[in-house]
């Protein structure tokens, strides 16, 4: 008589049947959500970004870089690096990647910042959600694409959904951390002037928590960029499409071109968002001569 040490446990059938039930009951609603996001959010944003002349985008990036970093040479390097992406013939796909990433980041901001604020105010909610955030951050990114495809089929909408789930946790965590780190003395001083809860949040807590929140936005942006590239496997167009084609056709050159473009994009966005997350003293250091 054989003895099985491990008790067989599987929840795959439960999850699959649950998602299939959702699709059967709410398929029309999911289709409406997908159509709404494409028609009123993603297609207009991508069309707007594509309509901007590349030189104007480069000028805008240069000005934003200089405003954030106070470094003329570094701003010029960023502009030249983005110009190099265009020289490789990847400008259009870079804009496609940026548009999906921007939509994902906007949704993350709308969801993540309020949840982070609520978690900072409620220890119970924080204890309930922290394990969920741990799971979200440790799950392999490919797993998120499965339910997204089952619910919305392939395309940009499931790519955005998977990206939001994957990139959301750091923003929630760092928003909560930033709000909690505001000094009690500062809050007491605000209360002594008759501040309401809303005014305390808007004029005291959020401004003082800005470096932490910006660090969360930085992390969310980097994760969103990584996920958008991987999401090309489920129909999201952009730079990831070239990497996937390079992999399937064993065309290293094509994949390397897209990989270099992703690296340039990541460095530029990372440096700019990091700079905007600095406090006043750190930013004043940037104004010193190069």
Q: What features would you describe in this structure?
A:
The protein has 290 residues and is mainly α. It has one domain (14-286): MetI-like (MetI-like fold). It is 83% helix and 0% strand. The protein contains 13 helices and no strands. The chain has helices at 12-51, 54-69, 72-87, 91-121, 123-138, 141-152, 156-180, 184-192, 197-208, 210-230, 239-248, 252-276, 280-286. Helix 7 packs antiparallel against helix 10. The protein is globular, with a radius of gyration of 22 Å. 34% of the residues are buried.
- CATH topology-level fold name: MetI-like fold
Q: Structural class, please?
A: mainly alpha
**Can you name the CATH architecture?**
Orthogonal Bundle
Tell me the span between the first and last alpha carbons: 78 Å
What is the typical, i.e. mean, pLDDT? 86
The CATH fourth-level homologous superfamily: MetI-like
Number of domains: 1
* Secondary-structure element order, N to C: HHHHHHHHHHHHH
Overall strand count: 0
Instruction: Tell me, briefly, the overall form.
Output: globular
Return the CATH class.
Answer: Mainly Alpha
- The percentage of residues in β strands lies in under 5%
Domain ABC transmembrane type-1: 94-273
Protein name: L-proline glycine betaine ABC transport system permease protein ProW
Subcellular location: Cell membrane
Membrane topology: Multi-pass membrane protein
């Amino acid at each position: 008589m054989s003895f099985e040490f491990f008790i067989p446990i599987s929840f795959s059938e439960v999850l699959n049947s649950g998602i299939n039930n959702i699709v059967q009951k709410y398929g029309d609603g999911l289709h409406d959500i997908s159509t709404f996001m494409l028609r009123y959010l993603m297609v207009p944003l991508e069309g707007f970004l594509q309509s901007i002349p590349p030189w104007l985008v480069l000028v805008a990036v240069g000005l934003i870089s200089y405003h954030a970093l106070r470094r003329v040479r570094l701003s010029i390097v960023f502009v030249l690096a983005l110009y190099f992406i265009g020289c490789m013939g990847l400008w259009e796909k870079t804009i496609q990647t940026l548009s999906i990433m921007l939509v994902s980041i906007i949704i993350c901001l709308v969801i993540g910042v309020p949840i982070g604020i609520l978690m900072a105010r409620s220890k119970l909610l924080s204890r309930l959600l922290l394990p969920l955030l741990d799971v979200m951050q440790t799950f392999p990114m490919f797993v998120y694409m499965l339910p997204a495809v089952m619910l919305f089929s392939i395309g940009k909408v499931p790519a955005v959904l998977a990206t939001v789930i994957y990139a959301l946790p750091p923003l929630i965590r760092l928003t909560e951390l930033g709000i909690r780190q505001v000094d009690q003395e500062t809050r007491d001083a605000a209360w002594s002037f008759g501040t309401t809860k809303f005014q305390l949040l808007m004029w005291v807590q959020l401004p003082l928590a800005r470096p932490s929140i910006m660090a969360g936005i930085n992390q969310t942006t980097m994760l969103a960029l990584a996920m958008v590239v991987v999401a090309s496997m489920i129909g999201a167009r952009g730079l990831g499409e070239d990497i996937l084609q390079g992999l399937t056709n064993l065309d290293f050159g094509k994949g390397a071109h897209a990989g270099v473009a992703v690296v340039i994009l990541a460095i530029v966005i990372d440096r700019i968002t990091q700079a905007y997350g600095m406090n006043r003293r750190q930013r004043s250091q940037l104004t010193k001569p190069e």
